[in-house]
Amino acid sequence: MKAPRTLIVVLALASVSACGLIRPSDDRILFDGKAFRTKAKAVDKKKSPADFTIVVKGVSASLDGAREAGRHEGTKFCVQNFGSSRINWKVGPDTEPQQLTISDDQLTFAGTCQRP
Fold it and tell me: What span, in angstroms and rounded, lies between the C-alpha atoms of 63 and 79?
């Protein structure tokens, strides 16, 4: 009786560990065929919570894709925090390429969420 019980335990562990093979990143939104890691944060929540920055990692994969990923992240940030998708970009997705802030394969945007 121990052999079948051991086999069941081994099969159960194997099936649970196989879950780790399914990557949750498969649901990520692609921009220009690439997935970008983005992070938006308020510059100073107490002083001016509507001012924010966005960092997009992996800009070397596609500048156009990184710009759109940053636009998406900014829109998401403003909708979640202020209920509006309107943004006044200081440096954003429509800024001329030579004026963008790119360092260490990261693109940085800055903007202000506009209230509805």
Answer: 24
